[in-house]
Every structure is written in structure tokens, then in C-alpha cells.
Specification:
Cobalt-precorrin-4 Transmethylase, domain 1, 2 domains, 8 helices, S-adenosyl-L-methionine, precorrin-4 C11-methyltransferase activity, 4pyrrole_Mease_sub1, Uropor_MeTrfase_CS
């Protein structure tokens, strides 16, 4: 049983390992609403393909266990990277109880694909060296106590928000006490997929820009000075003053 990060959308952004595992799977479970058809083309012609978009958790796990009992090699595609907002933890818990072994192959996460589209590094020397990846609370699993936008914003670090585009006005309102209306912001929708969009603005303008553009799904919101950083010092990584003979490579 292989949990495989499918990447942000483009079929050629799956890892070589993930592609090779798909190529030998006998059963593949995939989220139909988020998996491009081209990605499934890597599966063998006779593989059993199961769209999990309309299945609940017990039904998904039942199909996995059934395939395992048949002796099948199983691929479970997850959008982006399995370590972030993939719901694999509860699947693993049930597979452990059922005695089904599994492994995990990472994938390109949505925030990384979005940053690539922005042509921006999210950790810039002396501007921002941390990244908070979070989401907004809506009709979904409750956020743990303390994991609020206000608490994250107090650090002033770069924020990358999943699942928040339809509440972008509320996001802005919660962030403004800690950033300013001129703080750089961006929205990236459908990164690496057909129809991808990039909006660059400020915390004061980005909500209106998003509404005007009609962006309502599959979008990342970024806030932070790294989005417009200029004149920052070079990293110590490649500094001429660094003793490369006696130091490990680090920033």
C-alpha cells in the first residue's frame, strides 16, 4: 500500500518514484475532483481505478483492505503532499488496525507550486526566515486552541493560507491589526493547472482583487514582506568569507 503525493495538479509534477509506483499498481484510489486524468495514465491498463470523491472514510478503507486481501499492490493518490491537509492520518490509523502495511511517497505541495509561480523564495535573508502554513476555519474540522490567525500574525512572519479564499475578507480583517494595509500579499489559484492565476497586491487590496477576478477555489493566500523584498543581504551560504573546508553547508 503506497500513499503517493500527486503534486499540485500538473501530471508531470509527480515525483519519479510516485510515477513508478503508479506504473506497477494493481489498484489505484484517487480523489477524482482533484486528480488530472493524465496522472492516471501512468497506471497499468488493467489496473482497478477507484474514485474516492464520493466515498466516506470507512468505504475508502474497505476498498484498500479488499485490494490488500487480493494481494494487490495499491496506490493511494493524495493531492499535493501527504504531510499537509491530506487526511492520511486517519486512513493510516485504520490500516494499522487492519494489519495493512503502507509507505509514503512525498509530493510537491500546493504552497511550493504557488511560490514557484510567483518567482519568489519564501525565506529571504534578514526579511523572513520562517513560513507558517495554515488555513481558515469554516465548515471543516475545528482548529486546535491557540492556532489562530491572530496568534500566527503576531510573529510578523510569512503566512501561506490554504482553504481560505472564500473567507478572504475575514482573513484580512484578522491580520490587519498585526500587518499593515501596505503589507505585500498575493493569491495564486490553480497553480500548475490549466487556468492558473496570480494576483499580486497588498493586504489592503487583495480581497477586492480576488473577488473581481472571480477566484473561489484551489487558491493559496500569501502575506509577508518576502513577497516584495529587495535590497536584502546575500545568504551566508555562498559568502566568500565562509570557511567551506571546516563547516557543514548551512544557511
Amino acid at each position: 500500500m503506497h500513499f503517493i503525493g500527486a503534486g499540485p495538479g500538473a501530471a508531470d509534477l509527480i515525483t519519479v518514484r510516485g510515477r513508478d509506483l503508479l506504473g506497477r499498481c494493481e489498484t489505484c484510489l484517487y480523489p477524482g475532483s482533484m486528480t488530472p486524468t493524465a496522472l492516471l495514465a501512468y497506471c497499468p491498463d488493467d489496473a482497478t481505478l477507484i474514485d474516492t470523491a464520493n466515498l466516506d472514510l470507512p468505504a475508502i478503507v474497505a476498498r484498500m483492505v479488499e485490494a490488500h486481501e487480493k494481494g494487490h499492490e495499491i496506490a493511494r493518490l493524495c493531492s499535493g503532499d501527504p504531510s499537509i491537509y491530506s487526511a492520511v492520518a486517519e486512513q493510516m490509523r485504520r490500516l494499522d488496525a487492519a494489519g495493512v502495511p503502507y509507505d509514503v511517497t512525498p509530493g510537491v505541495p500546493a504552497f511550493a507550486a504557488a511560490a514557484a509561480l510567483l518567482n519568489r523564495e519564501l525565506t529571504v535573508p534578514e526579511v523572513g526566515q520562517s513560513l507558517v502554513i495554515t488555513r481558515a476555519q469554516a465548515r471543516s474540522t475545528a482548529m486546535p486552541p491557540g492556532e489562530t490567525l491572530a496568534n500566527f500574525a503576531r510573529t510578523g512572519t510569512t503566512l501561506a493560507l490554504h482553504l481560505a479564499i472564500n473567507r478572504i475578507e475575514q482573513v484580512v480583517d484578522e491580520l490587519l491589526p498585526f500587518y499593515t494595509k501596505d503589507s505585500p500579499a498575493a493569491v495564486v489559484a490553480l497553480a500548475s493547472q490549466p487556468g492558473e492565476r496570480v494576483l499580486r497586491g497588498t493586504l489592503g487590496t487583495i480581497a477586492a482583487q480576488s473577488r473581481e477576478a472571480g477566484i473561489s477555489r484551489a487558491a493559496m493566500i500569501f502575506v509577508g514582506e518576502v513577497l516584495a523584498a529587495e535590497g536584502f543581504p546575500d545568504s551566508f551560504l555562498y559568502s566568500a568569507t565562509r570557511d567551506r573546508a571546516n563547516q557543514p553547508e548551512s544557511l
